[in-house]
Amino acid sequence: MFPAPRLLAVATLITLTTAACASHEVHAVAPAGWSVQATQAVGGEGRWDLLAADKGRVYLSRSDHMDVVDGATGKLVGSLAGTDGIHGIALAPSLGRGWTTNGKSASLTEFDLATLKRVRDLPVSGQSPDAIVFDPASGRIFSFNARSNNVSVLDPDSGKELAVIGFEGNPELPAVDGKGHLFVNIEDKAQLVEIDTRAMKTSQTWALAGCEGPTGLALDVAHARLFSACDNGVMAVTDAGSGRQVALVPIGEGPDGAAFDPTSQDAFSPNGKSGTLSVVHEDDPEHFHVTQTVATARSARTIAMDSTTHRLYLPSASFGPKPADEKQRAPMLPGSFALVVVAQ
């Protein structure tokens, strides 16, 4: 539950957003609504963190291994073992390769997209590699290291670490524009950082006013708009060219991901505490409003969109009572892991 000041802040944001929409006389017509199409029982062992989706397959991090399932049925296609502390998964279809980040072994595991077999393990100098992305403009891998507050840049051919770029705080989720610019949220500093992927150095750092604890990040490449999902119940929309804040839009509680669909011009925030998915429509590059709040599942906090099918996937599970020891997490109920599938 929000404390009273936060409730007031969110109420104010809702009022301001409503007023802004009212003053904008002509809205783009939003496509048909989004809804839960299926909840696919996946089961299996292990908690989850980040995921990836492409060409009808969903790649899931599961504590010490990666599971790959058919996006249409949720049935297991294959697994990759030996990825202890797996957090993130990056795909490079043009190379036929993918990579996992293995937080406990400070390494990446490269795998073949066709066979799902391990190719090799790549060490990184950073601590606890977490989010990861392949940048097509530079042809490099960027692995964000949570405990050392930096990113390791690797050459996919040699597998060698080319550079390490440091931050003021903890890097969260990244987004690339395919033009040599990479953006990443800095969670504990409420910042957005831009990286020049060819020069392998930071080019801009912008404050995210009104945003606390930004995690999920999505990008509208065509209109240069960044969407940061913030822990205080807002989505911050930022101009990717100038760093100007364009809008603050109310969302649910507990997001840890974001996505954007260029076809519908919708941004998404998966809200694990609320058990909802906030759908934020881009009327034009200066005007945004919430069109839907879709009921999903509590704990469905991360998200991936398959750009080939326009389906959204949100992992979730059921949990038992929280132990008396506050350092321990509530146990995940066996066999309860599932994928919530959202589409139009």
What's the average pLDDT? 92
Distance between the termini: 30 Å
> Quaternary arrangement of the chains shown?
single chain
As a percent range, the share of helical residues equals under 10%
Number of E-type strands: 28
* SSE series: HEEEEEEEEEEEEEEEEEEEEEEEEEEEE
The tally of helices reads 1
From the helix content, strand content and strand pairing, which structural class follows? mainly beta
Q: Extract low-pLDDT stretches.
A: 1-30
**Beta content:** over 45%
Order of neighbouring strands in the sheet with most strands:
1-28-27-26
What characterizes the major β-sheet?
A: 4 strands, antiparallel
Outline type: globular
Rg of Cα set? 19 Å
Report what the structure shows:
With 344 residues, the chain is mainly beta. It has one helix at residues 4-23; strands at residues 35-41, 51-54, 57-61, 65-70, 76-81, 86-92, 97-102, 107-112, 118-123, 129-135, 140-145, 150-154, 161-166, 171-176, 181-186, 191-196, 201-207, 217-220, 225-229, 234-239, 245-250, 259-261, 266-271, 276-284, 287-295, 304-306, 311-316, 338-343. It has a 4-stranded antiparallel β-sheet, with no helix packed on it. Strands 2-3-4-5 form a 4-stranded antiparallel β-sheet, with no helix packed on it. A 4-stranded antiparallel β-sheet has the order 6-7-8-9, with no helix packed on it. Mean pLDDT is 92; it is low at 1-30.
